[in-house]
Design goal:
This protein has four helices and four strands. It has 143 residues and is mostly helical.
Protein backbone atom coordinates (compact mmCIF):
# COMPACT_ATOMS: atom_id res chain seq x y z
CA UNK A 1 0.00 0.00 0.00
CA UNK A 2 1.35 3.41 -1.01
CA UNK A 3 1.66 6.13 1.57
CA UNK A 4 -0.79 9.00 1.11
CA UNK A 5 0.73 12.09 -0.43
CA UNK A 6 -0.14 15.60 0.63
CA UNK A 7 -2.14 17.41 -2.05
CA UNK A 8 -0.17 19.86 -4.19
CA UNK A 9 -1.36 23.42 -4.62
CA UNK A 10 -0.74 26.10 -7.21
CA UNK A 11 0.03 29.36 -5.48
CA UNK A 12 -1.00 32.68 -7.04
CA UNK A 13 1.57 35.36 -7.76
CA UNK A 14 0.95 39.07 -7.65
CA UNK A 15 1.81 39.57 -11.34
CA UNK A 16 -0.20 36.48 -12.32
CA UNK A 17 -3.26 37.79 -10.53
CA UNK A 18 -2.88 41.19 -12.14
CA UNK A 19 -2.53 39.73 -15.65
CA UNK A 20 -5.49 37.41 -15.10
CA UNK A 21 -7.75 40.21 -13.86
CA UNK A 22 -6.68 42.55 -16.67
CA UNK A 23 -7.29 39.86 -19.29
CA UNK A 24 -10.76 39.15 -17.94
CA UNK A 25 -11.52 42.88 -17.76
CA UNK A 26 -10.45 43.40 -21.38
CA UNK A 27 -12.56 40.46 -22.52
CA UNK A 28 -15.55 41.88 -20.65
CA UNK A 29 -15.02 45.32 -22.20
CA UNK A 30 -14.69 43.76 -25.67
CA UNK A 31 -17.94 41.89 -25.14
CA UNK A 32 -19.73 44.96 -23.82
CA UNK A 33 -18.44 47.09 -26.71
CA UNK A 34 -20.70 45.08 -28.99
CA UNK A 35 -23.66 46.76 -27.32
CA UNK A 36 -22.26 50.11 -28.44
CA UNK A 37 -20.82 49.58 -31.92
CA UNK A 38 -23.12 46.93 -33.39
CA UNK A 39 -26.26 49.17 -33.36
CA UNK A 40 -24.17 52.02 -34.82
CA UNK A 41 -22.95 49.81 -37.66
CA UNK A 42 -26.39 48.38 -38.35
CA UNK A 43 -27.80 51.93 -38.45
CA UNK A 44 -25.44 52.69 -41.37
CA UNK A 45 -26.95 49.93 -43.51
CA UNK A 46 -29.48 51.04 -46.08
CA UNK A 47 -31.93 48.14 -46.12
CA UNK A 48 -33.83 49.60 -49.10
CA UNK A 49 -30.65 49.51 -51.18
CA UNK A 50 -28.27 46.98 -49.57
CA UNK A 51 -25.79 47.22 -52.46
CA UNK A 52 -24.92 50.73 -51.28
CA UNK A 53 -23.83 49.27 -47.94
CA UNK A 54 -21.92 46.34 -49.43
CA UNK A 55 -18.60 47.03 -47.66
CA UNK A 56 -20.30 47.33 -44.27
CA UNK A 57 -22.27 44.12 -44.81
CA UNK A 58 -19.15 42.23 -45.89
CA UNK A 59 -17.28 43.43 -42.80
CA UNK A 60 -20.10 42.34 -40.50
CA UNK A 61 -20.28 38.99 -42.25
CA UNK A 62 -16.53 38.37 -41.95
CA UNK A 63 -16.60 39.29 -38.27
CA UNK A 64 -19.57 37.04 -37.51
CA UNK A 65 -17.96 34.11 -39.35
CA UNK A 66 -14.76 34.29 -37.29
CA UNK A 67 -15.93 35.20 -33.78
CA UNK A 68 -17.95 32.03 -32.99
CA UNK A 69 -14.82 29.90 -33.52
CA UNK A 70 -12.76 31.72 -30.85
CA UNK A 71 -14.21 29.76 -27.87
CA UNK A 72 -13.89 26.51 -29.85
CA UNK A 73 -10.17 27.08 -30.29
CA UNK A 74 -9.66 28.18 -26.67
CA UNK A 75 -11.49 25.22 -25.12
CA UNK A 76 -9.81 22.75 -27.49
CA UNK A 77 -6.42 24.21 -26.54
CA UNK A 78 -7.17 23.97 -22.81
CA UNK A 79 -8.35 20.39 -23.27
CA UNK A 80 -5.21 19.42 -25.17
CA UNK A 81 -2.92 21.10 -22.62
CA UNK A 82 -4.68 19.37 -19.72
CA UNK A 83 -4.52 15.95 -21.39
CA UNK A 84 -0.87 16.44 -22.25
CA UNK A 85 0.18 17.72 -18.82
CA UNK A 86 -1.90 15.18 -16.90
CA UNK A 87 -2.86 17.79 -14.33
CA UNK A 88 -5.36 20.55 -13.93
CA UNK A 89 -4.66 23.46 -13.79
CA UNK A 90 -1.77 23.03 -16.21
CA UNK A 91 1.76 24.02 -15.17
CA UNK A 92 2.31 27.75 -15.50
CA UNK A 93 -1.37 28.62 -15.25
CA UNK A 94 -2.33 31.86 -13.56
CA UNK A 95 -4.75 31.54 -10.66
CA UNK A 96 -6.50 34.07 -8.46
CA UNK A 97 -6.56 31.91 -5.35
CA UNK A 98 -4.59 28.99 -3.96
CA UNK A 99 -5.78 26.11 -6.14
CA UNK A 100 -5.42 22.39 -5.60
CA UNK A 101 -3.71 20.58 -8.46
CA UNK A 102 -5.76 17.64 -9.68
CA UNK A 103 -4.05 14.73 -11.39
CA UNK A 104 -5.15 11.38 -12.76
CA UNK A 105 -8.82 10.84 -13.46
CA UNK A 106 -9.84 14.28 -12.19
CA UNK A 107 -7.50 15.97 -14.65
CA UNK A 108 -8.82 13.80 -17.47
CA UNK A 109 -12.37 14.68 -16.46
CA UNK A 110 -11.47 18.38 -16.64
CA UNK A 111 -9.96 17.85 -20.09
CA UNK A 112 -13.08 16.02 -21.24
CA UNK A 113 -15.19 18.88 -19.92
CA UNK A 114 -13.13 21.38 -21.93
CA UNK A 115 -13.48 19.15 -25.01
CA UNK A 116 -17.26 18.95 -24.48
CA UNK A 117 -17.50 22.76 -24.30
CA UNK A 118 -15.40 23.01 -27.47
CA UNK A 119 -17.77 20.61 -29.22
CA UNK A 120 -20.85 22.54 -28.04
CA UNK A 121 -19.41 25.84 -29.22
CA UNK A 122 -18.46 24.21 -32.53
CA UNK A 123 -22.09 23.19 -33.05
CA UNK A 124 -23.20 26.75 -32.32
CA UNK A 125 -20.56 28.11 -34.71
CA UNK A 126 -21.74 25.74 -37.46
CA UNK A 127 -25.34 26.87 -36.94
CA UNK A 128 -24.20 30.50 -37.18
CA UNK A 129 -22.28 29.68 -40.37
CA UNK A 130 -25.33 27.98 -41.84
CA UNK A 131 -27.54 30.97 -41.09
CA UNK A 132 -24.97 33.45 -42.39
CA UNK A 133 -24.53 31.47 -45.60
CA UNK A 134 -27.86 32.82 -46.83
CA UNK A 135 -26.70 36.35 -46.03
CA UNK A 136 -23.42 35.75 -47.85
CA UNK A 137 -25.22 34.57 -50.97
CA UNK A 138 -27.45 37.65 -50.84
CA UNK A 139 -24.48 39.97 -50.39
CA UNK A 140 -22.28 38.43 -53.08
CA UNK A 141 -24.88 37.69 -55.75
CA UNK A 142 -27.53 40.28 -55.09
CA UNK A 143 -25.40 43.29 -56.10
Amino acid sequence: MEPARAPAYLEPTRSGRLRLVLTRALLFLWFMSHLWWMPAVVARIDFDNPCASLATLQGILAYLLVVPWVPVVLFALWSWQTFRAGQSPTPGSRVLFRTRIRTGWWARLDALGFAAFAAMFAVVAMIVWRELDVLAIFINHGC
